[in-house]
Design brief:
Number of strands of chain B: 19
Largest sheet of chain B: 9 strands, mixed
Shape of chain B: globular
Number of helices of chain A: 5
Order of helices and strands of chain A: HHHHH
Oligomer: heterodimer
Helix content of chain A: 40-55%
Structural class of chain A: mainly alpha
Strand content of chain A: under 5%
Strand content of chain B: 15-25%
């Protein structure tokens, strides 16, 4: 078998599939403001967060996000990563809320005693 | 022997409805009831919830027993008040041996699965007790992560015939309101103001008070016994003090800025609703929808500046405690709306009632299965809640009494409830929409009403059998 063909088959077989394309379809329906069947940069700008640039999702560079590209965007973006990335960007721009990345001021916890059901200190006596 | 058979036999003997094959409890974290379609928001806000409500039982006045994820879910799972499980702080762990919804179902032969989005639902808090499988997504995650994991679990149980219970959770509505990551501004297109990028940082929400943003508010963290760093819970008091200082940097937020923030919240609500539709589609595709009961709740609401603050930790008003509660049964497509005051405490006994299982004695809530088709539910008529900031509250659905200044689990708080004084007790007319509560004077309060509220709070606090 042609090794190139074999690689292509393996690549297709290994490609992750979006388990729920209906979510991508539902969002496409909301973003496709002119009903053209795709999302252009202007439409994207209106409904997307700016930090998520249009270009990374437009994999065929036709300046239209079609459904396949949107599904791919979901596959490639973990919500937790997206949050982390956004938070980091805010901290870089405005400074870290606790002074330095990863640093913090530790508060003092009150001493813990025995709760009637095994938990913690009733500072003013358990009820 | 099929484990369903004894349950079926029991059901026939007691003329109870046949238990469903499966029950799914969905908790959409931080979902304010009044921001969903069936509770008064626009038709496009949550179309899937609207469908569930149009074919099921909606409880109009359900209140969470806390305004924070950890305590509210601990209460939801055990049907006990948070303070009956331990002091209401971020070290709370469900004590070993406490019967939970999942453990009771598992002991009765049900397969139990939990798929949660981490954070304060991490298993380190003991919330995994009773689950055959308890899968944590990454912290503060989305249905985008948890629903597919739940779908795989459902695929496994679909192959057998055991009854099953699934708990599914997400933080799609929780700050920062950026979960719908590819299209995040569906509700607020075109905004380009001062909060545009700041909305990504959950700290931003802690620095907003009464429509102003205080970027230089100094913050501190502490480390709980689980090794998790959390923001000092008293940040709201620090913010109020900071706002009073004349030299504090202050950015006044315009209506457009605030609409953007609230619109981002609405986008998260809509995104969660989309995934709920995905769950229903999943069940249908697996031929499980006809045999599965779905119970939908949230653990608390969100302030959205209704009482000065953006988040939910700072008050126990309706905005932070009134939550959606819908029971959708495959064999009953009738829309029922219950007006009686109900509580998240009632969810576990109700699910056990649907399963044909007697709730353990430790559970303080009421089995509502008898009123799913109408009629009276037999609840106490008041709902009691506790917060992490030395605050408790009780409401009868029209009036709300809040008491502050002592930890929820202490005798000092009992004393304050028994003799409410204006220095620490506040009464509100809460008969209108969340956010429209009007302060009343405790001193001018009708004795009968005050006694009813204080009695409701004290009865709730004593229901746990505290020595």
């Amino acid at each position: 078998m042609n090794p190139r063909l074999l690689l292509a088959v393996v690549a297709i077989g290994c490609q992750p599939k979006l388990e729920h394309p209906e979510v991508a379809r539902a969002l496409m329906a909301r973003a496709d403001l002119d009903g053209s069947g795709g999302v252009d940069p202007e439409e994207f700008q209106k409904v997307s967060l700016p930090r998520q640039g249009f270009a990374p999702y437009d994999t065929n560079h036709d300046r239209i996000l079609d459904l396949a590209e949107l599904e791919q965007a979901f596959l490639n973006t973990n919500p937790a990563d997206f949050q982390d990335e956004g938070r980091r960007a805010v901290h870089e721009k405005y400074g870290h809320p606790f002074g330095r990345p990863g640093g913090h001021t530790k508060g003092k916890r009150p001493p813990r005693g025995k709760h009637p059901r095994g938990k913690g200190p009733p500072p003013e006596g358990p009820r | 022997m099929n484990r369903l058979l004894p349950l079926l036999a029991l059901g026939v003997g007691c003329a109870q409805p046949t238990p469903p094959r499966g029950i799914i409890l969905v908790s959409i974290d931080t979902l304010r009831a009044d921001h969903t379609t069936p509770y008064g928001a626009s038709a496009g806000a949550t179309p899937t919830l609207a469908r569930l409500a149009s074919e099921g039982t909606l409880f109009e006045r359900t209140y969470a027993q806390s305004n924070e994820t950890l305590f509210s879910h601990a209460s939801l799972f055990t049907s006990q008040l948070p303070s009956d499980l331990g002091p209401v702080d971020y070290d709370l762990t469900i004590p070993d041996g406490t019967p939970t919804l999942a453990s009771t179902l598992r002991d009765a032969g049900w397969k139990t699965g939990g798929v949660v989005a981490g954070g304060h639902l991490a298993r380190v808090f003991g919330l995994d007790d009773g689950f055959d499988q308890y899968v944590e997504g990454r912290r503060w995650g989305s249905f985008q992560e948890t629903e597919p994991m739940a779908s795989r679990w459902l695929a496994d149980v679909a192959e057998g015939d055991d009854p099953f219970f699934l708990f599914l959770h997400s933080y799609d509505c929780h700050a920062p309101y950026t979960k719908p990551h590819v299209f995040g501004r569906m509700a607020t297109p075109g905004y380009d103001g001062v909060m545009l990028d700041r909305v990504h940082d959950s700290i931003t929400y802690e620095k907003i008070l009464d429509g102003a943003f205080y970027p230089d508010l100094p913050l501190s963290q502490l480390e709980n016994s689980k090794g998790t760093r959390i923001l000092t819970p008293q940040v709201h008091a620090q913010l109020a003090e900071h706002a009073r200082q004349p030299d504090s940097k202050r950015i006044t937020l315009s209506d457009t800025d605030l609409q953007f923030m609230k619109g981002m919240y609405a986008s998260g609500v809509l995104y969660a609703d989309l995934w709920l539709q995905v769950l229903l589609d999943d069940l249908e595709a697996r031929n499980m929808l006809d045999t599965t009961t779905i119970v939908l709740v949230s653990d608390h609401g969100e302030g959205l500046l209704d009482h000065g603050y953006f988040n939910h930790r700072d008050s126990l008003h309706d905005a932070a405690t009134q939550v959606p509660f819908i029971v959708w049964r495959p064999d009953s497509k009738k829309a029922v709306r219950q007006r009686e005051v109900t509580r998240l405490l009632d969810v576990a006994p109700t699910i056990l009632g649907l399963a044909g299982i007697q709730p353990p004695e430790s559970m303080q809530g009421v089995d509502l299965t008898g009123c799913l088709d109408g009629g009276t539910c037999g609840t106490p008529g008041t709902a009691y809640s506790e917060g992490v900031l030395e605050q408790i509250s009780v409401t009868d659905g029209t009036f709300r009494l809040t008491v502050t200044g002592a930890p929820a689990h202490t005798a000092a708080m009992d004393a304050r409830i028994e003799k409410p004084a204006p220095a620490f007790a506040h009464l509100w007319d809460a008969g209108g929409a969340p956010g429209s509560e009007k302060p009343l004077s405790v001193l001018e309060l009708d004795d009968t009403l005050l006694q009813r509220l204080t009695r409701g709070a004290l009865d709730a606090r004593s229901a746990g059998g505290t020595p």
